[in-house]
C-alpha cells in the first residue's frame, strides 16, 4: 500500500466551516477511484494550508490520480500548486473494521 500526502498553501486563510464546504463539494470526485481506499481532507490550524492524506493500493494507481488535469483543478480551486509526497505503507491498523492490514 501507498500513502500520499498532498498540500497546498492558500492565498488567504479559510475557516473550518469554509474548508468543510469546499471539501464536500469535491469529495464525490474521489468516490470509486481505482485503487483509492480512503481520503482524509486536511486543514492546518492556521487555515493557510489544505490538502489530503490518501491510502492507495499501489503507487501506480496513486500516480494515475495526480495528472496535469488534477494539478490544474487544484490550481483553479485553491489558487496554488500542490505538492505530492509518497510513503510506503506496509501496515495499517483499522479501528473501524478491527483489522490489521499488511502488504503481502
Query: Which geometry do the CA atoms define?
Result: globular
Tell me the strand percentage band: 35-45%
Strand order of the largest sheet: 2-3-1-4
What is the string of helix and strand elements? EHEEHHEEE
Give me the CATH architecture, please.
2-Layer Sandwich
Total of domains: 1
Poorly predicted ranges: none
Kindly provide the name of the CATH class: Alpha Beta
Terminal Cα separation, in Å?
A: 10 Å
- Helix % is 25-40%
Q: Using DSSP, what is the number of strands?
A: 6
The DSSP helix count reads 3
Task: Output the radius of gyration.
Answer: 14 Å
Mean pLDDT across every amino acid position? 95
CATH topology tier name: Alpha-Beta Plaits
Structural class: alpha+beta
Model description:
This protein has a four-stranded antiparallel beta sheet. Strands 5-6 form a two-stranded antiparallel ribbon. The N and C termini lie close together (10 Å). It has helices at 16-26, 59-65, 68-78; strands spanning 2-9, 36-43, 49-56, 83-88, 91-94, 99-102. The protein has one domain (2-102): 2-Layer Sandwich (Alpha-Beta Plaits). A hairpin with a 4-residue loop joins strand 5 (91-94) and strand 6 (99-102). It is of the alpha+beta class and 104 residues long. The longest helix has 11 residues, at 16-26.
Amino acid at each position: 500500500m501507498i500513502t500520499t500526502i498532498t498540500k497546498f498553501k492558500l492565498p488567504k486563510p479559510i475557516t473550518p466551516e469554509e474548508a468543510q464546504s469546499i471539501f464536500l463539494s469535491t469529495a464525490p470526485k474521489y468516490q470509486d477511484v481505482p485503487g483509492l481506499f480512503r481520503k482524509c481532507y486536511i486543514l492546518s490550524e492556521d487555515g493557510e494550508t489544505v490538502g489530503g492524506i490518501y491510502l492507495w493500493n499501489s503507487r501506480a494507481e496513486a500516480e494515475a490520480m495526480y495528472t496535469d488535469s488534477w494539478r490544474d483543478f487544484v490550481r483553479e480551486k485553491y489558487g496554488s500548486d500542490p505538492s505530492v509526497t509518497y510513503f510506503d505503507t506496509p501496515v495499517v491498523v483499522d479501528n473501524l473494521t478491527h483489522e490489521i492490514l499488511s502488504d503481502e
